[in-house]
Write the structure tokens for this entry.
Amino acid sequence: MTPLPEQEIIKFLKEHIEPLEDTFFGSGYRASVYLIDGTFLPCVIFRNSGKTVNLAIRRFKEEQTGKSVFSRSSGLGYYDIVKNFVTKGNCVNYYDIARVEKSRFAFPLNIQRQIQGETTMSWTGFSARMKDGKYFGFGTAFRWEFFQMPDNYSVDDIEEIVNHSYVSQTGELKSHREGFNEWPKDHSNTTIYRERAFFECYLDSL
């Protein structure tokens, strides 16, 4: 397989993918890709590199000048921030990409925007009502870009999001009260479709 030119990647993204906004990192275009060796990556988010680079420069400067809480508390702030930017996360080079497609794990924006607020500390639980009337429980600790999907369903089958809810062991839709720090008794063994790991690809011209 041959590499797909950068401008062809950008053209596909802008014509077929709704961008997901992010205050810190800018617009993200969620897609799936095939690499030139045939490897399939189902979850890739494309971003312009500018905001991430500028954020890194700002954070490095804050740590070097001692303005950051992390630097004052441990003395290792600068090292830890540099480490976070250069060794964490999953990245793929655009020149290794041969084909770009829509991802079956990226919620449409009109569905994504219905997910609101934490249910408990560091956990947001919600249910999705499908077009056939069936409910499935979803949840995430902090990542929203991609979600695992039930068998035989796609993200386009989602009709509505029910915030702070779960599907019980008996298949009932139940409320999970916002701010409640204890899990309901019939919650622990239910099937929860969680967030998926993803790769990032940075394009200067996106």
